[in-house]
Amino acid sequence: MRIQWRDSLAIGVVEIDNQHKELLKRFGLLLEACESGKGKEELAGLLTFLDEYVLRHFADEEELQRQKRYPAYVAHKQQHDSFIESLKALKSEIDQEGMALHHVMETNNMLLKWLINHISRVDIELGRFLKGGSTQA
What we know:
By secondary structure, the chain is mainly alpha-helical. The protein has a single domain, classed as Four Helix Bundle (Hemerythrin (Met), subunit A), CATH 1.20.120.50. It contains 4 helices and no strands. Helix 3 runs antiparallel to helix 4. The longest helix is centred in the C-terminal third of the chain and has 30 residues, at 101-130.
């Protein structure tokens, strides 16, 4: 399976779009590692990356939303917070149990849902708003 950036995911803010590209690239690396039987090894690095990167990305997105008075800010932030909590729970489980194949599968599922439901729907709505269109908030 190959995950690639497509222009239809762009929200029109270069910094945010570049961050999304990096997230997709990292997810793609995990999928490639899974295909070659090295998913557990790649997952450890991905989780370390996500710890820092996702927090910075969410903070950047949320700051932009506050500055532009985005009407769906609260709901958007709740989704970010929920993702962070899911990531923390996964890391806690791995710390307690050790890395296992089901953690790789959980992470793949979590990131795929995030890609499909958040970036391609919720962030696209933010992009529409920023471009002067309406939002379904």
